[in-house]
């Protein structure tokens, strides 16, 4: 197996935004990374104000083409082409910018700063390559479609891949097929029976990543959501914590689709300068279609994470009384991989009267809220006096008609004594299907903590500021 390549936007001079350069790192296992020299720097008129988001496409003959957004000397967003200088070099150390750049400029009706982030290309029905670019028309977030045969000359196709009124600028658009009957990933050009397509966009207005599942019509180059009220930007989010500018790629070696994301921090600029860095890359996740619900994707940390496990400690049949905190004794560690399952008393679930209609994680007092059926979960990154702690919990809400809704929340309000960091409570409703336990997986590290719900679609990536 070869190398995984990660290209990332980076300011090599300081931990403050600016001088956007492409860093480059490689890995054999997605866990241990080797940093390489910069892949591209802003040194040409067509990218002098930043080498921004891009995507690679691997052609059938093994050639690699990289399309990326550059900000010109006139502050115009354009699309540029680059390719490896030596394709036989497995580390791809040197990249060449196409001398004819830019290869795409903002078309009529599109703002000069509203034209960015080309996707990986896919093969169309006539053998042409297609890709989409994020933009907006007034307040309508849109995905434009371009066609090419050589990646140096592009044609804007009529119409849109998709657009949603009121969602504003779409950034970092992602578009890929997903099997509805298998758990393996699919090459970006795959289409046919038992395949849906995921359309995802990062919303510049609220800085969250939204997606929807739908049907791609290759002849018309149109995509339509399966459920209109769950369209891109108004329905599902990929992550309900701090997570943005995500992108997937197809791992041909393990036949899986892998999702990357970027986690911004709430530290002050001074803190960033003191520590010498700002923001993080999330742990990569596999993405599959949820065959149980048929409405969402499932995400889970890549299996390679489990190679870091050692010194397992197991706790069984721990009974939690209402309002109690049970300390679990483990060896000291800077990283934890926790899997916890909870069972709720069935009689209590049936007999409890509805009192929590309209419950929301973000509008309550977090883990300090007390109800008949929650919160219950884990407290991590806690000190001895519980003056600093991060509750991660389920909360079961029941309305007056007996309808039950389960919420999964993470409370950052007491994660740090520092005053200038974020204190939000993140969360959302989650489907817990019949026969399923309330199961969570928590990856605790030195800074960010990621939370996953077993067999469900919701993920939270938050900073504990510890």
Topology (SSEs and partners):
Layout (H helix, E strand, L loop, with lengths): L3 E7 L10 E7 L5 E8 L10 E8 L5 E8 L5 E8 L10 E3 L17 E2 L5 E2 L5 E9 L2 E9 L5 E3 L5 E3 L5 E10 L15 E9 L4 E10 L4 E4 L10 E2 L6 E8 L4 E8 L5 H7 L4 E2 L3 E5 L7 E5 L34 E7 L3 H6 L24 E5 L9 E9 L5 E8 L13 E6 L7 E7 L3 E6 L5 E5 L3
Antiparallel strand pairs: 1-2, 2-3, 4-5, 5-6, 6-7, 8-10, 9-10, 10-11, 11-12, 11-13, 14-15, 15-16, 16-17, 16-18, 19-20, 20-21, 20-22, 22-23, 24-29, 25-26, 26-27, 27-28, 29-30, 30-31
Report on the structure:
- This protein is mainly beta and 466 residues long.
- It has two domains: 301 residues, Glycosyl hydrolase domain, family 43 (Tachylectin-2, Chain A, 5 Propeller); 154 residues, Jelly Rolls.
- Helices cover 3% and strands 41% of the residues.
- The chain is built from two helices and 31 strands.
- Strands 8, 9, 10, 11, 12 and 13 form a six-stranded antiparallel sheet that branches. Strands 14, 15, 16, 17 and 18 form a five-stranded antiparallel sheet that branches. Strands 19, 20, 21, 22 and 23 form a five-stranded antiparallel sheet that branches.
- A hairpin with a 5-residue loop joins strand 5 and strand 6.
- It is globular.
- The two termini are 37 Å apart.
- The mean pLDDT is 92.
CATH topology descriptor of the largest domain: Tachylectin-2, Chain A
* Number of distinct beta strands: 31
- The level-1 CATH class of the largest domain: Mainly Beta
- The gyration radius over C-alpha positions equals 23 Å
